[in-house]
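Task: complex structure prediction.
Instruction: return structure tokens for all chains below.
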Amino acid sequence: MSNNAEHSEHIVSPGLYIAIFAALMILTGTTVWAATVDLNEYFASLNVIVALVIATCKAILVILFFMHAYYSSKRTKLIIICGFFWLAIMLSLTLSDYSSRYLDVH
Amino acid sequence: MHRTGDLYGQFQTLEQQKESATLGMWTFLITEILFFGGLFLTYTINRHSYPDVFSLASRTIALKWGAINTVVLIGSSLTMAMSVWSAQVGKKKLVTFFLIATLVLGTVFLGIKALEYHDKYVEHHIPGASFDMYYCTNNPGACDLSPEDFAKEKAELKALEEKIGGPVAVNSHSQLFFSLYFGMTGLHALHMIIGAGLLIWLVVESMKGRFTPQWNTPVENVGLYWHFVDIVWIYLFPLLYLIDRH
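Output:
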């Protein structure tokens, strides 16, 4: 029984958890700093794009290591990817609908 | 509910049993992702429609508390992950310690959130009959604003009024931002409260020494939930607190 249980899971070391935490802290600092710089003058909406890219990097780190997705089975990985794919469908189709109908709202 | 590491009849191996639990938890989390996704979609459409109002309204919420809460919540994710590790290597006392640490950090987060809500109440920024974006600038001393911030907010409100067509528009459009602010952070806080309840249950169980290297599925799955709530905040923080802080 214990052999089976050991085989079924990958144990992530505390050192890796602390490294991920440190990376998340650095990214949090970066996103706060980036918000205080006017990036929009270089490229429209660059500030929000940078903020979302940093947030997505943080989310990926949390999912892969804190939530062990990196070490999970292919089936679990597929389910996770499907979830985000469905989210992408919801966001992209709704936003493309709005952007082609209500262009004059503001 | 499985209370031991025994193999149940519908599974062939313990590995399969454990994978089913993880898969089931992720399936639930996907419904949560789509649920919060709808809110982020509403936010995106409203922010796109009223960018200047969202920018001004966002700057009235305290960046300091939002940033501190981000650190607190990511810290609680670290302690949650550490409690999973402790269970996996069989350190029963450490499991309890890290679960309590996670609970404490979660409570600190909710406490700071309550302080922020109270500030918004004082500033009349809660959508409804007494909502007034001009309350702070019309009543000097009523809000906790430095003289520079007071003058800046007054000038910004004036500029916004001219841009979008009067104080009525400023007040009605900024209520959209604050409705989303309270709706999204409120639902996030509700998830935290549920998570705290689950953590209390885990602390009680871990004190009985229930979680072992062979069986720690509840710690693992509550961990998945807790990290998911952390991810929601990772997106809420830049979208609500960090609009045009330059």
